[in-house]
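Hey,

Quick one before I head out. I ran the complex with glycine overnight. Inputs first:
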Amino acid sequence: MKQQIVFTHKFEQSLSDSIAKCNPDKIFVLADDTTIGMCYNRIKHFECLKKAQPITIPSADVNKNLSSLSCVWKVLQTAKATRHSMLINLGGGMVTDLGGFAAATFKRGINFVNVPTTLLAMVDASVGGKTGINFGGLKNEIGAFAFPKTVIIDTQWLETLDRENLLSGYAEMLKHGLIAEKGALATLLAFDTDTFDLRQLAEMLEESVEIKEKIVEQDPHEKHIRKALNFGHTFGHSFEAWAMMREPILHGYAVAYGFVCELYLSVVKQGFPTDIMRKTVNFIKANYGEFAISCNDYDALIDLMKHDKKNVNSTINFTLLQDLGRVSINQTATEDEIKEALDFLREG
Ligand code: GLY
C-alpha cells in the first residue's frame, strides 16, 4: 500500500509536490459537473495545472456507471495518455471511486491522486484504495483495490458543503468512533452539529482518518480486520439501494440508520453496552431524522441484503460490536432478528 495522506492548508504547494513525485508526461483532472465549477475553477490557474486537461462527468451516484467510466477512458485515449500520465480526482466519493477505477484500469494502471472535496470522501471514500462503479442495480459491484499515490485533504473545500452533506460524512466519522478504542465516540457525540465549527471538525477529521488508515494498513484487501469498517453497512447499503428506487438518500444517512439496526443486533447478540447504544441512537435520531419504511418493506430490504458482496455462501454477513473498539466480524442473524432490528429502527 503506497498511498500518502496529506492534511494541508497550502493546497497549491501540496498538489504541486504530489505531481512532482509522479513526474507525469500528461496530467488530467477529473471532476463532475458540480466540482468542475465550484472546485476546478478555483485551482485551474495553478502553475502545476497549466497543461492539465479537465475531464467532466455528470454528478451523482446514479452516474457512477459504465457510461461515465467509458467517457473517462475515451478522453484519456483520445488525448494519447500513456502509462506515465496522471489523473487527479477532484470531487466527492463518486469522482474518487470512478476516477480511481479508471486510472487503475487504463493501460493496466496509471498514477492517480485523490483530492476529496466532501467530508464523506475525505473521511472514507478517497482513503483506502477501494475504487469502482455501480452495475446491474448494485452499488460498487465492479471495482478494484487500487491505491492513490497521494490523498490531499484540505478542509477549505468543506465551506462549499450544505449541512446534509456534512452530516452524511459525519456518519462515517461516527463509525470510526464506534470501532475505535473508547474516547473517540464521546467527542463525536458532544460535537455541536448546529454550528458545525469547521476548525474543530478538521481536528476530529484527522483523528478519524487515522483510525481508518491504521485498519487499512493491517488489511488492505479486506480479508479480516478491515471488515470492521463495514459496521452499519449491511443494513445501510440495503437502505440506500431501496431508497434509490424511490427517493434517494445520502450515503451517510443510510449508514446512520444502519448503525441503529446493527447496534441493536450488537446489544442483543454481542452484549454491547445498552447506554452507549442509546446515546448513539439518540444522536442519530436527532440529527438524521426518521427513515420512512414500514413492515411491508422488510422482505425487499432483506432481499437487497442478500446481494451484498460481503456475504459468504449467500448468508448475510454483519460486522457487530461487543463494545467500543471490540469488533466481531463475519456475524450472522436470523430473518426474525433482522426484522426485530428494523422494528427497533422504526420504533426504538
Ligand atoms: N468504506 C469502507 C472501507 O473502505 O473499507
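Residues 124, 128, 130, 226, 229 surround glycine (CB under 6 Å).

Talk tomorrow,
K.
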